[in-house]
Amino acid sequence: MEVRPSEKLAGVAYDVRGPVLAEAMRLEAEGHRILRLNIGNPAPFGFDAPDEIVADMARTLASAQGYSDSKGILTARRAVVQYHQSKGVEGIDVEDVWLGNGVSELITMTLQALLNDGDEVLIPAPDYPLWTAITTLCGGRAVHYLCDESADWLPALDDLESKITDRTRALVVINPNNPTGAVYPREVLERMVGIAREHGLLLLADEIYDQILYDGVEHHALAALAPDLICVTFNGLSKAYRVAGYRAGWAVVSGPTEHARSFLEGLTLLANMRLCPNVPAQHGIQAALGGPRDIGSLVLPGGRLHDQRDLAVRMLNDIPGVSCTTPLGALYVFPRLDPAVYPIADDEAFVVDFLRTEHVMIGHGTGFNWPTADHVRIVTLPAVEDLADALARLGRFLESYRA
Q: Which whole-number Å values give the CA distances from 124 to 52, 179, 218, in the listed order?
């Protein structure tokens, strides 16, 4: 008897770990060394977790064998509250915090608790594709509002507002943005909040990169600008604290929560059903948020992340027919390949060809729900010499591709 997949999976895609990764794994099985520039995982590139996080987890391991409260341990939730209060978010306490096995789990739970079949969610294009995939899996419809490359990838607010219908439930704001690295100025966020206020939308703020900022830019917490609106803010330890494998994330609900009681009851029900988050990882949260934030030394001039970003932007812009906006945050570049120079019809096939030829794995732009096959996403985590080698290979490949 044939076992068929659920119809719920129709239209669901997560190309960050899709067919390109499968081809990379096949090549690795044949003995090839593949440089993976497709996913923001700091550990393989020599970014170690801060010692105090590992020490706290190790110290509490013997007492972390049982289930915790379904929302998470109290000390970790209190640290999350204090962190967001320091960013200007008021009126929250530990009961407004849900800990999770990474932000991905909490995004899934939130959209499961929110969406009915046919409900619409406004999601940026390009996006982190989990948002689109989970919206679809939950029976909703992802509606993509464009970000403007010519305006440093800031949201095109007229396009955003034109896509609101009577089925629109929520507005997703990814800031700093993955994959573009855009960091939204306060005035842009205030206009987005105004649109949400006018149309009665729930705000969903993905702020996982809020500490990875370059060139002195400031991150503004969306919830701090919208105290009169329900806002769910997602964050965690995986990027700024380099512990992606620990799966330690959180969601904070702020605003007039008395207007969202049934939604929050649903979120609590889902939290109860998964029993609890990973308990050992929860013990790293207080140590991380209460300790020194050494990410600052990495994003300043002379720091690894800063210098790798600068190298990537410079080398990409030196390739004929390639242009790259300088990211102000996060761990990626999202360069454009001029269609007049590189007539790419299928960007997934393009990155597979590059992978097979040069043994470097990058992401194709349409995998991030960008509408045209003229961008790629490249992770900037490798050390300068490795990143320079990978980008030189890309330049060489593009030269032959153009020829």
A: 36, 10, 21
* DSSP assigned state of 329: B
What does the DSSP 8-state code read for residue 42? Answer: S
Nearest to 121 by CA among 106, 143, 102: 143
Give the per-residue pLDDT at 6: 75
User: 144 and 151 in contact (C-beta within 8 Å)?
Assistant: no
Evaluate whether 98 touches 277 at the Cβ level (below 8 Å): no
Query: Which 8-state DSSP code applies to residue 257?
Result: G
What interhelical angle do 279-290 and 51-60 show, nearest 10? Answer: 140
pLDDT digits (tens, 9 = 90+) for 234-272: 999 999 888 888 888 999 999 999 989 999 999 999 999
Query: What backbone torsions phi and psi does residue 257 show, to the nearest 5 degrees?
Result: -65, -15
Phi then psi for 228, rounded to 5 degrees?
-95, 5
Nearest to 374 by CA among 343, 333, 329: 343
Q: b vs e for 25-42, b when ≥16 Cβ sit within 10 Å of the residue's Cβ?
A: eebeeeeeebbbbbbbbb
Higher pLDDT, 329 or 40: 329
End-to-end CA distance of the chain: 50
- Using omega within 30 degrees of 0 as the cis cutoff, is the peptide bond preceding 126 cis? yes
| Amino acid letter for position 6 | S
pTM: 0.93
Torsion angle in degrees (nearest 10) through CA of 306, 40, 349, 4:
-170
pLDDT of residue 75: 92
For residue 193 the two structure tokens come to 């909040």
- How far is Cα of residue 164 from the mean position of the Cα atoms in its chain? 23
Buried b (16+ CB within 10 A) or exposed e, 188-227: bbebbbebbeeeebbbbbbbbbbbbbbeeeebbbbbbbbe
In the numeric block, the tokens 């300068």 are attached to 384
Token pair of 165 as six digits = 């219908």
pLDDT band at residue 32 using 50, 70 and 90 as cut-offs: very high
In tens, the pLDDT along 273-307 reads 988 888 888 988 988 898 767 788 899 999 999 99
Q: In this structure, are residues 76 and 82 in contact, taking their beta carbons and an 8 Å threshold?
A: no
Which residue from 77, 123, 105, 108 is spatially nearest to 238, judged by alpha carbons? 105
Q: Is the four-CA dihedral 209, 79, 249, 222 of positive or negative sign?
A: negative
Residues contacting 60, CB < 8 A, separation 6+: 280, 283
